[in-house]
């Protein structure tokens, strides 16, 4: 490659090294003039005289060239100018890129600054998040602690209510206006039971034994009020219907209101109390004892009211049917059956559960009937009468009445069976006695063997009653034995 200096040196010797002929110089001049007068191409813009200026400047510059050195300098200048014009868009683009580079540098600096700021913000956010998380955890722990404390306080408060009830219950029981018939008495009993049950299950609490003793004392006081109310009510009712001293009351249809009406009117309030007592009787001995005492008091008052009246009524029935044993047994059993049903129904107006005391009352009343009828039964000698009594007791009483009523007449059925057993035993005894004395030890009298004279006399009597002549009537025509049947053993024995 040639250096610039070598090129310039060769160009300086261009005229010597490549001398032009005259003809060549003339051609050159023609070309120069032709080039100077060459029109502007149509595709180039001509606004503002740019092309004209360029052409004019080139013409003026060529006119000023005299030597080869000037020409070389002019060519270099033109080349530089052409290169400059050709590279102008690139230089502008480079300039624009430089501006963009500067702007990008500024943007990078701003981005780095923003990143630094974001990093600081991230650090601060993490710090705030950590502090917030710690605060949230502390608040959550405080909330849990608060919930635990609230639950603990509620638990303590709910448990303390059983102990604080002691004073309230004592105040209620000590109030003169508070009684068994008050609306708050049954809820008070329920609350007492709850307090006693809670205290018994938590004897490890401080002073729980003392509170348990006090609660039981209050329960005993409340149950004593119930017993006093029930006993006083029953006694007052009994005294209001008892006959005057020396008077005898007989149970009859007209006396139903006297013996049962007033008791039934007093029953609803007592039954409400007894129902609560019966529900608790299986869980606490105090309630069981109270129920037993109330039943015993009820039975005692009913026995006091009914014993003399039942005796009087049975005596009256005995007097009315003194000559007819079957009517006496039937009337006595009907009377006692009605009494047992009425007493059983009245008992369940006061109580809801059966009890041995009721059974004892009904047994005492039924055995009164037994004591009246048994002497009558064991002194009957007639076998047919005893058989009728057995039929009445077994069929009419046990099968038709007792079996239909169930528990209402269970005790009455037991007594009737005993009386039936006595009647059956009496039948056996009388049958054995009859066989022993009248059959096995039979000795005929002369009149017992007077046949056929005995039949003739009987035929004459029948003919006389029929209006026939006894002397001419045949005894065979009077007694038609063609359709007769053998009598049963019972009729033969009784006859």
Automatic annotation (TrEMBL):
Its main location: Golgi. It is a peripheral membrane protein. One of its GO terms (cellular component) is cis-Golgi network. GO terms for biological process: Golgi organization; intra-Golgi vesicle-mediated transport; intracellular protein transport. Keywords: Golgi apparatus, Membrane, Protein transport, Transport. Residues 92-235 form the Conserved oligomeric Golgi complex subunit 3 N-terminal domain. It is found in: Golgi apparatus membrane. Residues 257-463 form the Conserved oligomeric Golgi complex subunit 3 C-terminal domain. Belongs to the COG3 family. This is Conserved oligomeric Golgi complex subunit 3. It comes from Geodia barretti (Barrett's horny sponge).
